[in-house]
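FORM 12-B: Structure-to-Sequence Request
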């Protein structure tokens, strides 16, 4: 008796006894849906801003970057008027940028605001708070590239001559000789200076990296005159305030009075007045002598300067602006102007641009280093005159 055959799925004829039949498994139906909607924990805007600031600390962003990003996010939060960041749309981001345009802010300022929002929403994407970055869909304003402005060597000499104090002279000499950023000048410590070797260490500069800086003999001499015997603390500190001496004045009846200001234990300032005398004090100079003899026991002793106090970046900027006015320079001068002048003058005197990149602390030549090639005209003119047939 011939075996009955069945058609195998692959097309081959096989005996029925050799074919194995398998029933499909009967899986019980679950009492709940297989795909549950994901629930994301929502946070208030202020909490998200604080968490973003902690994230910036972890990835080692500078304090100035954190301050700038936080300020832009709070402005955007105010613009949203209570609406949560995670539900904001690209239209609202564009409307926020439009308000900045109406305030006639620079395109670079608008670009920094948009970049802060993009970084924040990238952080929200990492935390699974949003799926799409709304600021990424807004176009960044096209910023015109500007060449760095540099002083001439004669203008630098005029500013150094108009420094006005040993601290200002040391700061200007070091800024011009080393090309440090203003934040690096403010955070520089005496322990990181080597006056004999005329070198310094920049601790946690831009990008959180350390690097070596160099300076010349004039800067070393100015630093020795300013620092004296100090061996620790910040290099540039606020100047010590002089102890007050009070003032003298005379009323219409010919009576001389002295006035001075006292600070109580709670910090409250009180103006004190004392009667110095009448016609027995003929001149203001005599009244001044009488007040000086009265005040030594009344005024508190002057506070000693703390080595851990440092000159802020804003104070450095104000000082440089004042020195530029005294030097008769009408151009807009700031701390970064000395950094530009440092790089430009090195190029003009023949230094290789790769060495300048290392001294400036730039990561690659594609950053600001290449821009100095466009303003270092002195070296280009010498090269042109040397190699061109008609030079």
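FORM 12-B RESPONSE
SEQUENCE OUT:
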């Amino acid at each position: 008796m011939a075996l009955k055959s069945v058609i195998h799925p692959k097309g081959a004829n096989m005996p029925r006894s050799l074919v194995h039949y398998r029933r499909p498994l009967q899986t019980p139906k679950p009492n709940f849906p297989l795909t549950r909607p994901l629930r994301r924990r929502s946070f208030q805007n202020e909490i998200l801003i604080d968490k973003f600031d902690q994230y910036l600390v972890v990835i080692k962003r500078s304090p100035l970057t954190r301050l700038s990003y936080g300020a832009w996010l709070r402005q955007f939060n105010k613009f949203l008027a209570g609406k949560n960041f995670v539900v904001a749309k690209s239209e609202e981001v564009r409307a926020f940028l439009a308000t900045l345009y109406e305030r006639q802010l620079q395109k670079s300022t608008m670009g920094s605001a948009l970049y802060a929002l993009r970084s924040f929403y990238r952080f929200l994407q990492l935390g699974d708070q949003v799926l799409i970055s709304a600021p990424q869909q807004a176009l960044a304003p096209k910023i015109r590239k500007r060449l760095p402005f540099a002083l001439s060597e004669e203008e630098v000499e005029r500013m150094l001559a108009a420094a006005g104090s040993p601290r200002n002279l040391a700061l200007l000499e070091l800024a011009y000789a080393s090309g440090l950023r203003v934040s690096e000048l403010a955070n520089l410590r005496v322990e990181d200076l080597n006056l004999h070797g005329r070198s310094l260490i920049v601790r946690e500069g831009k990008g959180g990296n350390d690097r070596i800086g160099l300076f010349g003999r004039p800067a070393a001499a100015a630093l020795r005159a300013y620092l004296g015997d100090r061996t620790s603390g910040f290099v540039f500190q606020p100047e010590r305030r002089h102890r007050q001496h009070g003032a003298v004045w005379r009323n219409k009846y010919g009576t001389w009075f002295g006035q001075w200001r006292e600070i109580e234990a709670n910090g409250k300032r009180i103006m004190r007045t004392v009667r110095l005398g009448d016609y027995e004090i003929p001149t203001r100079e005599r009244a001044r002598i009488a007040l000086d003899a009265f005040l030594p026991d009344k005024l508190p002793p002057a506070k000693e300067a703390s080595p851990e106090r440092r000159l802020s970046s804003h104070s450095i900027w104000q000082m440089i602006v004042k020195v530029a006015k005294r030097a008769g320079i009408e151009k807009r001068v700031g701390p970064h102007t000395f950094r530009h002048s440092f790089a430009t003058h090195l190029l003009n005197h023949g230094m290789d641009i790769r060495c300048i990149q290392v001294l400036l602390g730039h990561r690659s030549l594609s950053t600001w280093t290449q821009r100095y090639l466009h303003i270092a005209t002195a070296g280009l003119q010498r090269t042109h005159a040397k190699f061109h047939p008609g030079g």
